[in-house]
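INFO batch 0412 | record 1 of 1 | parsing
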Amino acid sequence: MIVVTSLENEKVKKFKKLQKKKYRDEYNQYIIEGEHLILEAFKKGAIEELIILEGKSAPIPAPYGYYSLEVMKKISSMDNPPEVMALCNRFSEDTDVKGDRILLLDGIQDPGNLGTIIRSAVAFNIDTIILTENTVDLYNPKVLRATQGMFYHLNIITRKGMEVLLLLQNIGIPVYGTDVNGGVDVRTLLPEEKEKFALVMGNEGNGVRDEINEQCTKKLYIEMNKNVESLNVAIAASILLYELGR
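INFO prediction complete | emitting tokens
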């Protein structure tokens, strides 16, 4: 068994680079960590090569290499690296919005929030997620871990915000924003208002950009205790998606 032990190994240096977005874009590849994510990636045919800690076994039939613990620590984005990671190829993005249930995320910056929202989107049967250009990278390691592999089960595309709105308007999909003051209680929507929609959720601190918010055809809000001013964006998105799916 050949084990890579050098931190200067060319593959190791490439794997380390993939922690940064510019190199993920350059190589069109990314690293996933942990067996659960690897199994999900394997189902989708995304895995190029397994990165395995010396002495451990491959969880799936795929090309692999063995690496020392020191090297695994360098490659991993986690404090305690898992026993197996994988180099994956990014899929080509679809150019079209698929389905009638759309989630538009404008400027989400926290990787954990994006990952949680993606999991909720799968749970509540969203067809397409659109990420605006100012949203955290889908392939950020923290995003990938937070999705628990659910990002493989969605059509996810990246577009400029205003271009997306024009596209949605052209295909006749109403756009729902949020407004805690002048919005409509999401629980009062009619069944036909839930059949086709694009729900917009915005930045953690600033919300949805004004130019996008102004184009929304309806504003929604979540009825809650008056002592609570606002909810975390991932929690709010999950509640709204649940209500829209009822």
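INFO post-check: The two ends are 54 Å apart (CA to CA).
INFO record closed
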